[in-house]
Structure prediction request, 349 residues.
Amino acid sequence: MNAPQPACNIADRESFYKKIDGASMTPLWEVLHGIVTPFPQTPCLPHVWKWATSYPWLLEAGGLISAKEAERRVLVLENPGLRGQTRITHSLYAGLQLILPGEVAPAHRHSQSALRFILSGSGAYTAVQGEKVAMNVGDFVITPSWTFHDHGNPSDEPMVWLDGLDLAIVELFDAQFMERGSEDSQQTSIEAGTNLAVFGNTMKPVEYKPRSRTSPLFWYPYERTREALETMLQHGTEHECWGYKLQYTNPVTGEWAMPTMGQFMQLMPKGFKGRPYRSTDSTIYVVVEGSGRCVVGDTVLRFEPKDVFICPSWMPYRFEIDAADDVVLFSYSDRPAQQALDLWRDQIG
Ligand code: 1HN
Prediction:
C-alpha cells in the first residue's frame, strides 16, 4: 500500500519551519544530508607554518609582552579553515610558546591534557607535579590532565616549543576546569631525572598502581627516540607510506601515552617516495630533521626543519623526501580518542 504523498508546497513548509523555530525546533530533513555524509567532511585545510616566518614573530612577541603577563606567551597555529576557533584541527590545538632567559610561566592546572615538543633552545624546564624536566630539542613532554605545571628558563637563550592540547575535545564535552597554583613556581621536591629513571626502562616498580590513563613517564628524550628509529632502520621493514614509524607508549600498559592524543615519530630515508595514505585522524606534523614535500590532495606542502604542517581527516597524502638527508617527523592526532569510540579508520593507496 502506498502512503499518501503530501504536495510540495514550499510556502507552507517555510511558514511551518518559522512556527516551530520559535519553540527551538527545526526539521531534520533540511540538514540531514549535510550531517550524515558518505565520507568525512572537514573544514580543516592542509597548511604549513614555516619556522622562518614564525620564529622572528615569536621573538617580536617577546618584546611586546612578558611570559608572566601573558601567562603563556604563545602564537596559536590556527587552521585557515577554522579561523577564530583557536585550533589547528577540528579537535586539537597547537601553538608555539616562547620563554625568554630568566622568565617563568606561572603554575596552573587544567582538565585539558598538554604535550610539549621542543623546537629550539636548551636549558629551560617544565615542572610537572613537583618534578622538573630539562627540555631539549626533539624531546616530547607530557602534562597530564589536572597536574600542576610551570615553565622556567634559567638558560641564556630563548626557548621555543610546540604545545599540543585536547582543548576542543574537552570543550565538546563541557568538561573544562582550571586552577592557578598558590606560587608561580612549584616547589620541586623530586630530583630531576627521577621520572625517566623509574619508568624509562621497560620495567616498573612492582608496587606502582596507575592513577590515570596517562603515561606515568612524562619525558621522552629525543636521544632515545632517535636511537630507536636508527635501530628500526637497521632491523625493521620500511613501510610503503610512512617509512619507519614508531608510536610513543605508556610503558606500563603498552597503550597510547595519553588518552585523547596519540604521538608518533617517523623516519623516512633520503629520496623516499611514499604511497598515498589517509585516516580519519587529522594529523599535525612537526619537522625534526630533513626536508621534502607532503602532497595532500592537490596541495603541495614544502617542509624544512621546525616547520609544522597539517594533513586533514580522510584527505589522501604522500611524502616525497629530498635526496640530501633522511627526514624525521614528530606527529600527533586524536587517534586514541577515535579508537576508544570505535570511530577510527584508515586506508592505504
Ligand atoms: C597552557 O596551559 C599552556 O601550560 C600552553 O604551557 C598553551 C593553551 C591553551 C590553554 C592552556 C602551558 C595553552 C595552555
About this structure: The longest helix spans residues 222-235. Residues 72, 74, 95, 97, 105, 114, 149, 163, 165, 167 surround 1-hydroxynaphthalene-2-carboxylic acid (CB under 6 Å).
